[in-house]
Specification:
CATH topology: Secreted effector protein pipB2 fold
InterPro entries: CDI_immunity_sf, CdiI_C
Radius of gyration: 15 Å
Protein name: CdiI C-terminal domain-containing protein
Structural class: alpha+beta
Helix content: 10-25%
CATH class: Alpha Beta
Pfam families: CdiI_N
Length: 165
């Protein structure tokens, strides 16, 4: 299963303001803190639509789902997605741009073209990866993205329930 959702209500913990979100990759669930000072939930959802469409555009496409965009030098976190035929591999990255841009458009965020580099070829040095069939991304595009999903809607799916505080 693939699901990416964000709540519309802003939260705050120790001065960090964010929108709660959730990413489901197969059996794994990642709870997200999507920074709220720069993008709105609508902008995150818009970027996710573009990222999913980019994966659908070619069987060897690379895209990225931005899960936190903020101002400053370490300005976003994303889930890099590499499609190879019918398989999509996800890797989580904190992106530190050499020259941070003052404004990164939600629709163009994936064009930053940041690729991970790995030291050596040792498996223990490689980051964690999640693999899903592309059909799960296509299902997400058909069902989730057509009606402006929220965390509450996504929690009614097969994943564990999300409790909003």
């Amino acid at each position: 299963m693939f699901c990416l959702a964000i709540a519309d209500r802003r939260q705050s913990i120790e001065g960090f303001r964010f929108f709660a979100g959730r990413l489901v990759l197969g059996e794994s669930i990642e709870f997200l803190r999507c920074a709220s000072g720069y993008w709105s939930p609508r902008q995150y959802r818009s970027q996710w639509r573009v990222a999913a469409a980019r994966l659908a555009s070619h069987p060897m496409a690379t895209s990225a789902f931005v899960t936190s965009a903020a101002k400053g030098p370490g300005n976003f976190e994303w889930w890099l997605a590499r499609r190879r035929g019918n398989t999509v591999t996800f890797t989580n990255q904190l992106v530190f741009l050499g020259r941070p841009r003052l404004h990164v458009s939600a629709e163009l965020a994936h064009e930053q073209k940041h690729r991970p580099t790995y030291r050596g070829g040792h498996q223990e040095q490689r980051p964690s990866e999640w693999r899903l069939p592309f059909s799960e991304i296509r299902r997400y595009m058909r069902h989730e993205m057509t009606s402006n999903p929220s965390v509450k809607r996504a929690s009614r799916k097969r994943a564990a329930p999300y409790v909003e505080r």
